Amino acid sequence: MISANYLKGLLGLVLISASFNSCRVDRIDGINRLNNKQFGRKAQRSGFVILDVRTPTEYDSAHMAGSVLMNVKDSLSFIEKLSNLDPSKKYLVYCRSGVRSLKASRALKEAGIKKVNDLAEGFKNWDGPSDSTKIK
Q1: Residue 23 annotated in active site
Q2: How many CB atoms lie within 10 A of CB 75?
Q3: Phi and psi dihedrals of 49, rounded to 5?
Q4: Among 51, 95, 102, 119, the one annotated catalytic
Q5: Is 128 in contact with 36 (CB distance < 8 Å)?
Q6: 116 and 89 in contact (C-beta within 8 Å)?
Q7: Which of 14, 47, 64, 118 has CB atoms 3.0–4.6 Å from 105's, for a disulfide?
């Protein structure tokens, strides 16, 4: 039979492990894939440029305050805007679900931008502040 003290200790280790995992940053191809909490903390700091890579219709329905629209589905416009980005700045990138933002983040990295952060869960799961009425 397992003792109560052993189970309490095991539960403590599980809780500590879970708290470390919530602070952990996943990296893919040199891109920081952030959860809502991590993304929100960075978005509140100065020095970050927030890029919304969704369509204009999605952006107009709701977007993060201060974000810049850079529609990844419009390749010509996206490439033009990409070429005008300052590689010395830090970027936060998001889309609806995290798929387009990862694609856009990879393009930023390929263009020589070193500090790229991506909202892994997408705007559909965003629980931070936004402009307009958010439609899921």
Answers
A1: no
A2: 9
A3: -100, 125
A4: 95
A5: yes
A6: no
A7: 118
